[in-house]
């Protein structure tokens, strides 16, 4: 992933520096308004990363020790880590082979009376079935947190991912479609949660630093609860505002590149490219392919040969339950998760990718077929 950062972003960051307001301030507030409107939510709360967003989501849901939170193992490890931050227990569920996402059935298979929440990931930008999982979560009386780290610009049922979510967490890491360098966002339609989230990101203060400085009279702040320093800076938000303006064009370009990959790979046995589900469209944050036994060459051998030919591909999405950090946590069998993390790889897809680049990558994959 190569982020598209140009002169406009550099100028926006420089303007923020010259303004004298570089910490959380007016540009953060503007970015919150514009991003939440873009994804169809009433409120946005900018934070330092998607990991801190997930943590705060669980805090406002009052998840804690003794509670279980169902998560996909097939996700960046931060999804599970956030559960441990609040003292709860992550419970790993398997995923759908085609989308890499949790489903109603895979969640229900590991649900217990201690289940208080589900964190469902829109994996690699592929939306999960929001209608089905939201309905099921309501019926189970458990909270649904949407880990939309990769999903800015994706859609489900004709609406942006994030529209109608109880609470969603977003990432602006450089590997995402739009970036602020580091940074994240929470979106929700719950005004009370949004007010508390703003306190929680800023040490529990009842009035923000920006509001204190804007007041004509001295303001004596109070600290209402033990909280955190999870703020975004105005420099980051300035870059984010420019990036947000690029989002639609970047998604269109990425989807076109993905379609070209699929066309080039269509007759190659044993390679299954990721595709849109029937109910939505991906922003193609990650374009992965699954290698079947018919392909004849292992995923790791393919990665090694691509690297030898100057192609920077990556392994498929990690499985947290296989990592040392979670060796102490028993889990149900996760056969699909283990197949995807073992046999899939992510091909390069970014704004600078050319037809010649794609042709070269596919040529390497063709040479390796049947080995």
What does this protein look like?
- Keywords: Aminotransferase, Pyridoxal phosphate, Transferase.
- The structure is a single chain.
- The protein folds into two domains: 7-245, Type I PLP-dependent aspartate aminotransferase-like (Major domain) (Aspartate Aminotransferase, domain 2, 3-Layer(aba) Sandwich); 247-368, Aspartate Aminotransferase, domain 1, CATH 3.90.1150.10.
- 39% of the residues lie in helices and 15% in strands.
- It has helices at 7-19, 26-39, 50-60, 78-85, 104-108, 130-140, 191-200, 209-214, 234-265, 299-308, 335-343, 355-368; strands spanning 43-47, 68-72, 89-93, 115-121, 143-147, 155-156, 159-160, 167-171, 184-188, 271-273, 280-281, 287-291, 314-315, 344-347.
- The strands form three sheets. Strands 1-9-8-5-4-2-3 form a seven-stranded mixed β-sheet, with helices on both faces. Strands 10-12-14-13 form a four-stranded antiparallel β-sheet.
- Helix 3 (50-60) runs parallel beside helix 4.
Total discrete domains: 2
Mean pLDDT: 96
SSE pattern = HHEHEHEHEHEEEEEHHHEEEHEHEH
Rg computed from alpha carbons, rounded to a whole number of angstroms: 21 Å
Just give the CATH class of the largest domain.
Alpha Beta
Distance separating the two termini: 29 Å
CATH superfamily of the largest domain: Type I PLP-dependent aspartate aminotransferase-like (Major domain)
Helical content class:
25-40%
Described by the principal axes of the CA atoms, the overall outline is: globular
Query: Can you tell me the CATH architecture of the largest domain?
Result: 3-Layer(aba) Sandwich
Largest sheet: 7 strands, mixed
Q: Structural class of the helices, strands and pairings?
A: alpha/beta
Largest beta sheet: strand ordering: 1-9-8-5-4-2-3
pLDDT < 50 stretches:
none
Beta content comes to 15-25%
- CATH level 3 topology of the largest domain: Aspartate Aminotransferase, domain 2
Number of continuous helical runs = 12
Family: Belongs to the DegT/DnrJ/EryC1 family.
Active site: 176 (proton acceptor)
Pfam families: DegT_DnrJ_EryC1 (PF01041)
Protein name: DegT/DnrJ/EryC1/StrS family aminotransferase
């Amino acid at each position: 992933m190569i982020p598209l950062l140009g002169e406009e972003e550099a100028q926006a960051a420089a303007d923020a520096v010259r303004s004298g307001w570089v910490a959380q301030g007016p540009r953060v507030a503007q970015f919150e308004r514009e991003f939440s409107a873009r994804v169809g939510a009433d409120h946005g709360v900018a934070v330092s990363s998607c990991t801190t967003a997930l943590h705060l989501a669980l805090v406002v849901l009052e998840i804690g020790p003794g509670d279980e939170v169902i998560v996909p193992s097939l996700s960046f490890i931060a999804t599970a880590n956030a559960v441990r931050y609040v003292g709860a227990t992550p419970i790993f569920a398997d995923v759908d082979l085609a989308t890499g996402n949790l489903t109603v059935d895979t969640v229900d298979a590991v649900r217990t009376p201690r289940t208080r929440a589900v964190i469902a990931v829109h994996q690699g930008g592929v939306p999960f079935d929001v209608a089905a999982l939201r309905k099921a979560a309501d019926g189970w009386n458990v909270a649904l947190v949407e880990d939309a780290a990769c999903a800015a610009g994706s859609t489900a049922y004709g609406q942006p991912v994030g529209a109608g979510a109880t609470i969603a967490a977003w990432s602006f890491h450089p590997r995402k479609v739009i970036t602020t360098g580091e940074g994240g966002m929470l979106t929700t339609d719950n005004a009370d949660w949004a007010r508390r989230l703003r306190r929680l990101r800023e040490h529990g203060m009842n009035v923000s630093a920006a509001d204190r400085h804007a007041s004509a009279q001295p303001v004596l702040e109070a600290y209402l609860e033990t909280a955190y320093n999870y703020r975004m800076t105005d420099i980051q938000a300035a870059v984010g505002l420019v990036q947000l303006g690029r989002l639609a064009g970047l998604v269109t370009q990425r989807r076109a590149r993905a379609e070209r990959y699929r066309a080039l790979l269509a007759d190659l046995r044993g390679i299954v490219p990721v595709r849109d589900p029937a109910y939505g469209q991906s922003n193609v944050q990650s374009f992965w392919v699954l290698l079947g036994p018919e392909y004849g060459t292992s995923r790791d051998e393919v990665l090694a040969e691509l690297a030898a030919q100057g192609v920077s591909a990556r392994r498929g999405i990690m499985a947290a339950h296989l990592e040392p950090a979670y060796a102490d946590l028993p889990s149900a069998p996760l056969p699909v998760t283990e197949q995807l993390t073992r046999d899939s790889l992510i091909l390069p897809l970014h704004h600078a990718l050319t037809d010649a680049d794609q042709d070269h990558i596919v040529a390497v994959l063709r040479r390796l077929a049947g080995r």
